[in-house]
């Protein structure tokens, strides 16, 4: 029987030399062994969990990233939809997204790098925000869209230039700005986090003050406001400034993670809640898309020209190779404030037209 027992004791899947360790994948003994394993148990558990999470990621249907439930969207808004995936059904990740995922997986698999990040994060979290820690460590990079996807959106919105100035507000480390910077003569950026501002300056973008960006330069041909409205303290004030800071014929590109969930790292209320709330209604992604277009953008004189959906990708860590959220992208233009009209969608799709 000893032989049979030995056959069942598979050596640790992570290559540790401890003969009492019998971690393998896929049976009940595994989770028991992972839970009780000591002294290397914590690391083994982390690696086991990461492997499981990565298996889940590998099996995930990535076509969902580029799709919405069209039955829940009004027809006039469906006309503005621009698919951003690749492949026959335009619902597969493009090359830039694939490159980001591969690089992210490589970095997340580097134990020394992740151990250093984890140590530094716990030490620094007493003093500075998570975003600033990421900026200092050069980690947590994000991916929104590629140059080709951006150009597709611009073309679909009828933007023909001039390609003189771009400002990316709340640009983070400028990774997404870098994808489109070559299209413009002048590239400006802001971020509230000092390490992110250093990262932006290192990329040779002109870094503007977070309060005075609209006075220091501009009006701008294109403004990027990517994943900022749910992270800044005063999103309504920002939206009004965005509208007035667009050059004639300019485009505002807003990306927002949905379902909407505001979380403010640096705000007046000190409880991570924003000082101003966006009137986003409904709980599902599609309902919120309609609500944003009708109730948030239209009332401040921003008309949606095209919109789409893609994954907001974030570099991974010891937890998993990468993270993703549903990101909805809107390309908007400024409307004369007095003549704008707004449609308030009721959740079931019935709408009431209202002129201001
Ligand atoms: C979720 S990240 C988005 C980064 C990048 N735009 C992207 O889409 O990957 C939000 C960023 O906005 C910055 N931020 C928050 N409030 C801000 C404000 N009022 N002005 C400028 N940046 C701000 C944060 O420091 C953070 O880097």
TrEMBL record:
Organism (species): Atta cephalotes (Leafcutter ant)
An example Gene Ontology molecular-function term: protein-L-histidine N-pros-methyltransferase activity
Gene field: 105627453
Cited InterPro entries: METL9, SAM-dependent_MTases_sf
UniProt protein name: Methyltransferase-like protein 9
């Amino acid at each position: 029987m000893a032989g049979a027992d030995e056959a069942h004791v598979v050596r640790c899947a992570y290559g540790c030399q401890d003969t009492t360790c019998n971690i393998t994948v896929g049976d009940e003994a595994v989770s028991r062994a992972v839970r009780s394993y000591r002294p290397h148990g914590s690391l083994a558990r982390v690696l086991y969990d990461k492997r499981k999470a990565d298996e889940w990621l590998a099996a995930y249907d990535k076509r969902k990233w580029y799709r919405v439930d069209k039955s829940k969207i009004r027809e006039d808004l469906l006309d503005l939809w621009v698919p951003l995936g690749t492949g026959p059904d335009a619902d597969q990740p493009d090359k830039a997204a694939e490159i980001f995922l591969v690089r992210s997986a490589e970095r997340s698999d580097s134990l020394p790098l992740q151990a250093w990040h984890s140590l530094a994060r716990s030490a620094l979290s007493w003093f500075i925000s998570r975003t600033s820690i990421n900026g200092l460590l050069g980690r947590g990079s994000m991916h929104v869209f590629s140059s080709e996807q951006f150009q597709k959106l611009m073309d679909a919105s009828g933007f023909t230039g001039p390609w003189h100035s771009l400002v990316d507000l709340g640009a983070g480390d400028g990774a997404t700005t870098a994808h489109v910077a070559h299209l413009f003569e002048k590239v400006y950026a802001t971020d509230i986090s000092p390490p992110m501002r250093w990262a932006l300056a290192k990329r040779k973008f002109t870094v503007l003050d977070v309060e005075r960006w609209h006075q220091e330069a501009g009006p701008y041909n294109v403004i990027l406001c990517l994943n900022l409205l749910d992270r800044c303290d005063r999103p309504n004030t920002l939206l009004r400034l965005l509208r007035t800071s667009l050059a004639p014929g300019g485009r505002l590109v807003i990306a927002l993670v949905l379902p909407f969930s505001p979380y403010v790292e640096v705000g007046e209320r000190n409880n991570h809640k924003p000082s101003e709330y966006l009137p986003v209604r409904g709980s599902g992604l599609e309902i919120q898309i309609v609500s944003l277009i009708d109730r948030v953008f239209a009332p401040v004189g921003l008309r949606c020209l095209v919109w789409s959906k893609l994954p907001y990708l974030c570099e991974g860590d010891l937890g998993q190779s990468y993270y993703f959220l549903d990101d909805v992208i809107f390309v908007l233009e400024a409307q004369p404030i007095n003549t704008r009209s707004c449609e308030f969608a009721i959740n079931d799709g019935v709408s009431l037209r209202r002129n201001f």
